[in-house]
Specification:
homotetramer, mainly alpha, Arc Repressor Mutant, subunit A, 75% helix, 0% strand, DNA-binding
Chain lengths: 208, 208, 208, 208
DNA sequence: GATGAATGAGATTTCATTCAT
DNA sequence: AATGAATGAAATCTCATTCAT
């Protein structure tokens, strides 16, 4: 209860100001707690708050999405099945992030902090490992079944995630802009999922 | 001379520690200058150093690559021409980043700082605008010529960039890891460019 | 019952970490009470705990020793009687502290805290007054009886106490040291009492 | 210059409030420096300030005294020579501390902090080692020469130091007291040295 | 121009104490 | 009487920036 109120506040403040710009003062204030209370729930302080947020909210959310869309039980044996499944996955990600704007901000803007510190990077890799494994396994299954062209599955997974992240970055960039500088149409999850799925499955080349 | 020695030092230190972790002390030391001297060359201090670095090195490098591979003069009228041109582009990016590791680190891990501050974001969008416009225009040309399937060109540009960034992120992540946690094969620019081009142009679906 | 369980815990924790290093959290934990309960028994909090400990355990113990060895009723009329009595006193102190290591730690390392605060110093002086008076009176009696050389009795009392404290400090110092740095033989109360008594009564000068 | 101004301020503040009660704020204020300046001179912060103070001022002062009074070259072959030398030593200590009140306060009230931390204790033992060795060696020489009764020299050194410290503690205690609670006459270094020397060399026993 | 000592705002963190339950 | 979550004052320490030399 209290714990999640603190996490809510931390999520908002980290998303708005970034890890370094966020102050415990502001988090405590927004949570309507004293500063010291944070340390009762998260003795590790700022860093622990950040990690828990990533674990529970960022990765937790992504995992829920991937497990809903790409369970091991789902058949990916035909091109249509594969396309439908990955469409669901991409669409799920977009819906999830649309509904959790500040989680998205955390993911996009704060995850790269890990590149400056091996410990943080190790933590991140561990956190995202399950997620990546599930995605990669689904891709491999579809390839094994002959639905997808045989390729190294892990790089394909990175491409897929990179596609989603690329579009999301472009879209939240506009949130941060004063006005009309960026002309992207609003992100409509299902249309965007169609778009990504089409490019990725059918390729950019014109066909007759 | 001095100026670029300072920038070299700043590039290295920002890349290693991130914007917040970098100290002017260390930059000055590595540049073999006094701290005060930095302010003669970059009166705006740390923030200006960061901006100049992005402008001259990150964006400058990207622009050189895109202009080499996708000049307006290059014909993109047939699928093969388009494929070859974009392959050159991706390959150029990968080669550039392979040769400029710390620029890559800046691009991947420090650019997202912009999401926490509208001013910085505006700057970033301006800086990257030319680059994005050139990529987008090339895509649009190939579509207009019938080489590529007609789609909104800007989102496709974001996808393309996102693909490259996704793979690069995965690769520099392993640099930051203790050992053997991540099993990606070493990034070979031309093979990786083949891979990205194939997926993007032909799609993942198996074809007979 | 409860009260003394709390004092036991406080004694241990103060002895181990010093006044400032001790936390009520740890004291409560070791006493197996809630933190709030401490305030039911010792409304003055940390400071009161410390004072009570000094009064009941440090000074209380010292007073018991001095009253056993140097009661007003004990005859100190001859050199042998005086020597025996003070030997008993010193030996009693050493035995007491040997059996109460953490009381000793409190006495040696935490009493000096009083020097930083007149109120605490006043308290300390009051607490130790009875003890010092008894020692001083015994010395004065022995002097009046002609057993000891006439000298100002109070400074002699400080010397005597200082001797004991000096050796004790040297000995507990070795407890705190990593290994073999300090070469003092183990403190054997009766031998050490012999030693102190000999020096103090007979002097260091060689005699024939 | 600056460095010693900071040390002067730190000495005064530590002496007045003790290690824990002292704040860097107050030290900086008294030194008429900004807080940050302290860290230019003493990067280790409060702890380093404290260590340097002990090394340079407390131990440095004691070593100067002991080397002046008890150099290896001084003959301690007869009782009179020994008595004179140790009288000089005690008198030197008392003069030194009379002239350096806050150094005395540091020595008396802050050195015991070491008992709560092995690292600090190790440091203290190292710092005081040279001093103790010199005193002990002088005692041993006097014993070897037959001037003093043969006894273990190190414990005798602790007794001697303990005597001085005991009297000093009694005297600075009165400084901390409101008024007239403590009746010690003012400490007159040479008389007090006579007193200590007499007790220690001739013993307390009355002689005819 | 070059320097680096000085600065102090501002951040994180600790913990004695309170008080509603 | 017993509790321990909540509190926030207060402490240490960092570092971008200034400016006299």
């Amino acid at each position: 209860m209290r714990r999640s109120a603190i996490l809510d506040a931390a999520e908002a403040v980290f998303a708005e100001h970034g890890y370094n710009g966020a102050t415990l003062e502001e988090i405590a204030e927004r949570a309507e707690f004293g500063k010291g209370t944070l340390y009762n729930y998260f003795p590790g302080g700022k860093e622990e708050l950040y990690e828990v947020l990533f674990e529970e909210r960022v990765v937790g959310g992504l995992s829920a999405v991937v497990e809903a869309a790409l369970p091991d039980a789902r058949s990916l044996a035909t091109p249509d099945e594969a396309r439908a499944a990955f469409h669901d996955f991409v669409s799920g990600l977009l819906h999830h992030f649309e509904a959790n704007r500040s989680v998205l901000r955390l993911y996009i803007s704060e995850a790269p902090r890990a590149f400056n510190d091996p410990d943080r990077m190790t933590m991140m890799v561990r956190l995202f490992e399950g997620f990546m494994v599930t995605v990669t396994r689904a891709i491999a299954r579809a390839m094994d079944a002959g639905a997808l062209r045989p390729m190294p599955a892990l790089p394909v997974a990175h491409l897929l995630i990179g596609n989603v992240r690329g579009l999301l970055m472009a879209h939240i960039a506009s949130d941060c802009l004063p006005a009309g500088i960026h002309e992207l149409p609003p992100l409509v999850p299902d249309e965007t999922a169609d778009f990504i799925t089409t490019v990725l499955f059918d390729g950019l080349l014109a066909r007759d």
